[in-house]
Amino acid sequence: MSHARSEYEDFKKIAPDVYDLVLALGQLATKAGLDKQLIELVKLRASQINGCAFCVQHHVLLSERIGVPVDKLHLVAVWREAPIFSPRERAALAWAESLTVLPDGVSEDVYAEAAREFSETELMYLTSAVASINVWNRFGAAFRWTPAPRPAAANAAAS
């Protein structure tokens, strides 16, 4: 198992201006009115793709706190095969994947699906959420931030 090169808390201390900017970017989508649960699913999926253990754990724990159904958390990695996701969630997840893995850009089909489910403004803010989590993932993966432990009370409930 690899070990951390630096920790999340170090980022706040070493580059507080960068930390504040990335944090602010990540908060804009929900401030603009996009559903917090939807945004957490998007951030979780991008973090899975990018292999950022810190961010996966962070967004699982945050999602649980805000009431994202546990089945969605378990199935987000295979959302295309899971009927539990709404058309809006599917469009957001496809959008997030397209913006996270960019070798061919965003297809016309993915754009059309996203444009059916989101207004122009919502799509811009959804894009800001995807951009921000991809930035966080770059830091978390590069420095191998240690995932936060599950809080003790949640450990007991999960058993």
TrEMBL record:
PANTHER family linked: 4-CARBOXYMUCONOLACTONE DECARBOXYLASE FAMILY PROTEIN (AFU_ORTHOLOGUE AFUA_6G11590), BLL7811 PROTEIN
Pfam family, one: CMD
Organism, scientific name: Bradyrhizobium shewense
Domain of life: Bacteria
Keyword Cell wall biogenesis/degradation attributed: no
Domain Carboxymuconolactone decarboxylase-like: 16-97
Matching SUPFAM superfamilies: AhpD-like
Keywords linked to the UniProt accession: Oxidoreductase, Peroxidase
Protein name per its UniProtKB record: Alkylhydroperoxidase AhpD family core domain-containing protein
MF (Gene Ontology): peroxiredoxin activity
